[in-house]
Structure formats: C-alpha cells, structure tokens
Amino acid sequence: ETTPDLVVVGSGLFGLTIAERAASQLDKKVLIIERRPHIGGNAYSEFDEETGIEVHKYGTHLFHTSNEKVWDYVRKFTDFTDYKHKVFGKYKGQVYSLPMNLALINQFFGKSHTPDEARALIAEQASEFKTEEAQNLEEKAISLIGRPLYEAFIKGYTAKQWEKDPKELSPDIITRLPVRYTFDNRYFNDKYEGLPVDGYTAWLERMADHPNITVMLDTDFFTVVDDYKGKVPIVYTGPVDEYFGYSAGKLSWRTVDLESEILDVDDYQGTGVVNANDPEVPFTRELEFKHLHPERADRYKPGKTVVVREYSRFAQEGDEPYYPINTADNREKILVYRDLAKKEPMVLFGGRLGTYKYLDMHMAIASALTMFENKLRPHFEDGTPLT
Ligand code: FDA
C-alpha cells in the first residue's frame, strides 16, 4: 500500500471535486475516506427496484447554477435534462402555485389583479409593521408581504420547520420574501437548470472513476486519523466541531426525517413537490420523484409511485446534520472553530459540514474548484504551505 499524496475526508460534491481535480490535473494519488456505505454525500440517489423510480435518499436535489465554470465542469461527467423545478403548496383544501406570484394572489383573494393592483394590495397589507422595527420573524414577514399571505403561506410552514411559533423566532432568519407580480412560477432563477440524465449516482461515480483515486467506504476518518494527520495534506469535509472534539461546544443542526412509501396509483399528486402549509398537517412537504423525470415514463412500472414525506426537527446525537442554525450561540462557536481550522497544519476544511454553511451543489463545487486552484495547485506545484 502506497501513501497517498492527498487524503479527502467525505465523498460529497465538495470532496469529489477536490479529488477529481487533484487526480486528473496534477496526477496526484488521492485517497477518499467516506463513512457511509456509498459515495456522493447527500446528492446520492438510488433507483427503486420495484418501480424503477430514482429516489433521492437525502431529500430532493435539484441542480441549478448561473456559474459558467461550474456548468462547464459538471458536464464533463453528465448531461442534464431540461427539467425546470416548480413547487406547489396546499392550504385549506386548495393547491396554490409557489413561489408567491400573481396566480397565487388571484386565487387566494378570489379575484383577478393586474400586476400594479396586486403590488398596491400587498404594500397596503404589509404596512402593518415597519421592517426595521420587526421584533420577531412574524412581524418581519408581515412587514414584507402582509398578514393574510403570511398566515397562509409562511406561518404554518415555518412553525413546522423550526418547531417554534414564528413569534419566538429571530427576525434575522429571513431577509426577503420575494413576491412575483407575474405568472412566472419557475422556482429557480438560474441560467442553467436540469437533472443528471442517468441519475445522480452515475454522475458522482464518474467523478471518482480515475486510476489515481481510491475510495475507502464505511470508514470513519477518526478511526484512521493517526495514519494520515500531519503526514499528508488532508481536505476535510466532515463536521468541523467533531474534528476539534467539540472543544468549543456542539454546533446545532436541523435534520429531516424522510418517510418513504410505495403507493398503488400511477400518479399521486401530479407534480414533484407539494408543500403542506396547514399547521395541523405534521409533515412539511410531499415529494413524488417520478415527476422529476417525465422522460423516463416508459421505464416506470405502471400503477405505482414512490412518495416521500418530510418531517423537520432539531438534530439529536446520531441524526444526519442537514441545515445549520443561524443563532448567536452557533455564530460564536463557529468563529472559534474557524480560527482553529485556520491554524490546523496541513488540513483544509471545506464543504457544508466543514464550514457550517448551507451550500447548494453548485456552490459546493464552485468553492472546491476555488480551493483547488488557490491552495492545492500552488502547494503541489510550488510547495507553498497549505493554509
Ligand atoms: P455532503 O454532506 O454531501 O458530503 C459530506 C460527506 O462527508 C458525507 O458523505 C459524509 O458521510 C462524509 N463524512 C462526514 N464526516 C466523515 C468522517 N468523519 N469520516 C468519513 N466521512 C465523513 N443542493 C442543490 O443544489 N439543490 C438541492 O435541491 C439540494 N437539496 C438538498 C436537500 C437537503 C436535505 C440537503 C441536506 C442538502 C441539499 N442540497 C441541495 C445541498 C447538497 O446536498 C450540497 O451541495 C452538498 O451536501 C454539499 O456537499 P458536501 O460535499 O459539502 O457535503
């Protein structure tokens, strides 16, 4: 067994991008250490055997970017379909088109509005609070979109997401609540959008498929840390607080429970994602994966569909950490960890868990490409230290 030139901890899109670049551009031997039984991090998916439907194991993953470099890079490994994401929301027995737009406003208030009429209506309803004076999330939301839309489309959903009354949540959690005064209901505004034609896992596996890359699955880095720490450069994409033994305390995360079910109907909800805005419905949304790939219709088993319900809660010991929580307490801790990370010799910290930042896939890839060019390439080519 030869010593690798670089160890990458975690095989999510951040780790894979680093590994692929070092292997293909610098001809370095890379060892990827992954504690799960599969590569790909949270973007991983599987084709359900019974129905032929691709199921995203860690929640829906929609690819979108306006970054030309990222778009060129990802297409080395996969083509993308022309899927454009749409989201709907159920409230009191009706289904509305999200994000909030003219169709939703007209349906909700039961009459047609011109864009200017709708704008005036929402501005009038939003005048109840001044944004700068909002004391909590509820007042801030009302100051942005008015009470009626807040109570229908933000209040119940937010309360479920945070397990807290929005009156008890910080106004800083939201900065804007976009309302579109058009009928445009495309969810993302990015220039490029689509889903990997052969599925996420085929894409992720192609990134790792290089003779210079070795993948060690089912291996927690901390069980082999002494073999590599201080001996070879390491790019670490696991939780930053875990790396430092939680010395500044645990960072808190939100997690999502995913309850999957195969139903004996061809089509359950007619679209991929429907939010549950009613406060008494315990889940936050329902996902029906077959709708993400209408082009695969002839490969699906007729009369069957896969539906996943998402339940949001605070992560406990052993749960998957999904979303960082922006509170003063966590902000203080992360500053301490960032400082420790900067000083850690021969180790670079990256990705969602390594930086305690929510990163979309395109952001994780962009950030890894930057780390590769600014830190790893100079290190390997000119011997500059890894900091
Ligand atoms: P990621 O979490 O993917 O990978 C980290 C890897 O490190 C994991 O495989 C983990 O097992 C491993 N690891 C951690 N500690 C380790 C240790 N000690 N030893 C070994 N291995 C270790 N993005 C987007 O663009 N569109 C979308 O629709 C979504 N949707 C979405 C839903 C949900 C619920 C989440 C949580 C995230 C998304 N994302 C997304 C974000 C997307 O998943 C994101 O880009 C990646 O998580 C970022 O990749 P990373 O490589 O940073 O982390």
Uncertain regions: pLDDT < 50 for 5+ in a row? none
Distance between the termini: 28 Å
Kindly estimate the percentage of residues that lie in beta strands according to DSSP.
15-25%
Which class of secondary structure composition applies to the elements?
alpha/beta
Q: Strand sequence of the main sheet, in spatial order?
A: 7-6-12-13-14-11-15
The set of bound ligands, ions and cofactors reads: dihydroflavine-adenine dinucleotide
CATH architecture tag of the domain at 6-46 and 57-79 and 197-252 and 324-382? 3-Layer(aba) Sandwich
Sketch the major β-sheet. Answer: 7 strands, mixed
- Give the helix proportion (percent range): 25-40%
CATH T-level topology of the domain at 6-46 and 57-79 and 197-252 and 324-382: Rossmann fold
Q: Tell me the number of helical segments per DSSP (H or I, 4 or more residues long).
A: 12
- CATH homology group of the domain at 6-46 and 57-79 and 197-252 and 324-382: NAD(P)-binding Rossmann-like Domain
Radius of gyration: 23 Å
Reading the helices and strands in chain order gives EHEEEEHEEHHHHEHEHEHEEEEEHEHH
State the CATH class of the domain at 6-46 and 57-79 and 197-252 and 324-382.
Alpha Beta
Shape: globular
The average pLDDT is 96
Question: In words, what does this structure look like?
Answer:
InterPro entries: UDP-GALP_mutase, UDP-GalPyranose_mutase_C. One of its GO terms (cellular component) is cytosol. Belongs to the UDP-galactopyranose/dTDP-fucopyranose mutase family. Keywords: FAD, Flavoprotein, Isomerase. Residues 152-358 form the UDP-galactopyranose mutase C-terminal domain. This protein is an alpha/beta fold and 387 residues long. Among the domains are: 6-46 and 57-79 and 197-252 and 324-382, NAD(P)-binding Rossmann-like Domain (Rossmann fold, 3-Layer(aba) Sandwich); 101-173, protoporphyrinogen ix oxidase, domain 3 (Orthogonal Bundle). 33% of the residues lie in helices and 18% in strands. The strands form four sheets. A seven-stranded mixed beta sheet has the order 7-6-12-13-14-11-15. Strands 9-2-1-10-16 form a five-stranded parallel beta sheet. A hairpin with an 8-residue loop joins strand 12 (273-276) and strand 13. Helix 1 (13-25) runs parallel beside helix 12 (361-382), helix 4 runs antiparallel to helix 5 (137-145) and helix 5 runs antiparallel to helix 6. The longest helix is centred in the last third of the chain and has 22 residues, at 361-382. The model has no long low-confidence stretch (mean pLDDT 96). Bound molecules: dihydroflavine-adenine dinucleotide. Dihydroflavine-adenine dinucleotide binds at residues 9-15, 33-36, 41-43, 58-63, 220-222, 237-238, 256, 322, 351-353, 359-362, 364.
